């Protein structure tokens, strides 16, 4: 590497070292960077993405707050945009985890993305204001999925415990969540950032809800297909293509596939199966106390509801 590159790396290291970090036992350690809590180990790739990524109009970005349905969204959008190449009998989803077919910005470094063919399908958890300028300026569509924070907090607690193999209690996790120190949090800024943009630029940001997908997957898939400029034809509709995609990407099907049952994800410590837990709406009733529910509902009432968003 040239000395200029070394200087840039040193400057990034210095920047990261100067950021506030999460307190206590929160793992992985997070840094407060541009108003969100970014896992510190992902920051070099996130910063490189912000500074050097050149969005193309044909790129499609999938964004979510962690545990909002990222895995599902990846499988669904991958299937929609690649349906002329693959059907349910030969889709790569039969042999690869959804996270392997759609790269995640943060874990994957930039040079790997340059080799991807159009239309690049990329996923990330970065909040809207922190997206690279080229993404915000270009016409590349962004599909955002959100989920009721009561379910996110329960889902992320189970996930952390499994991945970190820690005895991290639900109470500690809940506190961290309410302080906004959850990965890529505060969750209220994350959700409202994309929500506002979807209202202002509905052709730029499609805002989906996990709960709506659960209720009417066919209707939501049609919306996604239209949004990315690939609406289902009458022939496809009559041929059951939408139902096929819905079934292939369903929790039951994906969880049951051998490829998602064992082994670790890419070069991480994450078990592939930890991305498939229960896949339901409202599991929070089984975990959160009434006072936790009140507290989180109050936060939503204050931060999210005024913008016309309800769960
Ligand atoms: P639960 O922990 O409530 O079961 P993410 O993919 O953003 O990490 O979110 C994970 C959550 O989505 C988990 O929720 C997981 O079980 C659920 N999930 C994964 N695949 C799904 C699918 N195909 N359909 C519905 N939910 C899915």
Automatic annotation (TrEMBL):
Q: Which Pfam families match?
A: Sulfotransfer_1
Q: Where is the Sulfotransferase domain?
A: 57-305
Which Gene3D superfamilies does this one have?
A: P-loop containing nucleotide triphosphate hydrolases
UniProt entry keywords in alphabetical sequence: Transferase
EC number(s): the record gives 2.8.2.-
- UniProt entry tagged with the keyword Membrane: no
The family note in this entry says: Belongs to the sulfotransferase 1 family.
Q: Could you identify this protein by its name?
A: Sulfotransferase
Naturally occurring in which organism (per UniProt): Rhodamnia argentea
Species classification: Eukaryota, Viridiplantae, Streptophyta, Embryophyta, Tracheophyta
The gene coding this protein: LOC125316145
């Amino acid at each position: 590497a040239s000395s200029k590159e070394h200087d840039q790396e040193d400057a990034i290291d210095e920047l990261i070292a100067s950021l506030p970090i999460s307190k206590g036992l929160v793992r992985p350690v997070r840094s407060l960077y541009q108003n969100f809590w970014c896992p510190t180990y992902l920051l070099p790739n996130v910063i490189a993405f912000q500074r050097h990524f050149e969005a193309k109009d044909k790129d499609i970005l999938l964004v979510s707050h962690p545990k909002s349905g990222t895995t599902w969204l990846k499988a669904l959008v991958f299937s929609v945009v690649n349906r002329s190449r693959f059907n349910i009998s030969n889709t790569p989803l039969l042999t690869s985890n959804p996270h392997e077919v759609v790269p995640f910005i943060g874990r994957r470094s930039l040079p790997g993305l340059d080799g991807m063919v159009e239309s690049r399908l990329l996923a990330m958890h970065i909040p809207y204001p922190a997206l690279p300028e080229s993404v915000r300026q270009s016409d590349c569509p962004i599909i955002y999925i959100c989920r009721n924070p009561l379910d996110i907090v329960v889902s992320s607690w189970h996930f952390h415990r499994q991945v970190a193999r820690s005895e991290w209690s639900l109470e500690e996790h809940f506190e961290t969540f309410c302080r906004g120190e959850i990965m890529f949090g505060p969750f209220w800024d994350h959700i409202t950032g994309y929500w506002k943009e979807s209202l202002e630029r509905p052709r730029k940001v499609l805002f989906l809800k996990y709960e709506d997908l659960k209720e009417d997957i066919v209707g939501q898939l049609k919306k996604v297909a239209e949004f990315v400029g690939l609406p289902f034809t009458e022939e496809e509709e009559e041929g059951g293509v939408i139902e096929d995609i819905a079934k292939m990407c369903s929790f039951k099907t994906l969880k049951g596939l051998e490829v998602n049952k064992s082994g670790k994800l890419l070069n991480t410590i994450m078990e592939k199966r930890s991305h498939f837990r229960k896949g339901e709406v409202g599991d929070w009733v089984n975990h959160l106390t009434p006072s936790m529910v009140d507290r989180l509902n109050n936060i939503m009432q204050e931060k999210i509801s005024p913008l016309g968003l309800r769960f």
